[in-house]
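User: Could you go from structure to sequence for me? I need the amino acid at each position, not a summary. C-alpha cells:
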C-alpha cells in the first residue's frame, strides 16, 4: 500500500474531519455530564422527599405527632 505524501488529498481529508470529530466528542462528553448531573439531582430530590414524607406517614399511622 502506498503511503500518502504530506499534502496529498487523502491526508487533507483526514485533517479536515478532525475539527468536526473533536466538536462531536466534546458535545458527547457534555451531554454525558448533563445526564449524570440530572440523575444525581433526581436522586437527591427523592431522598429529600422520603426524608420528609416517611416520618410524617409513620406519625399519621401511629397517631404520634
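Assistant: Here is the amino acid at each position, in order:
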Amino acid at each position: 500500500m502506498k503511503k500518502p505524501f504530506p499534502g496529498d488529498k487523502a491526508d487533507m481529508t483526514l485533517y479536515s474531519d478532525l475539527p468536526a470529530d473533536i466538536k462531536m466528542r466534546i458535545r458527547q462528553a457534555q451531554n454525558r455530564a448533563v445526564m449524570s448531573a440530572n440523575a444525581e439531582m433526581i436522586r437527591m430530590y427523592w431522598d429529600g422527599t422520603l426524608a420528609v414524607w416517611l416520618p410524617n406517614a409513620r406519625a399519621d399511622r401511629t397517631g404520634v405527632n
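One structural detail worth keeping in mind: The chain has one helix and no strands.
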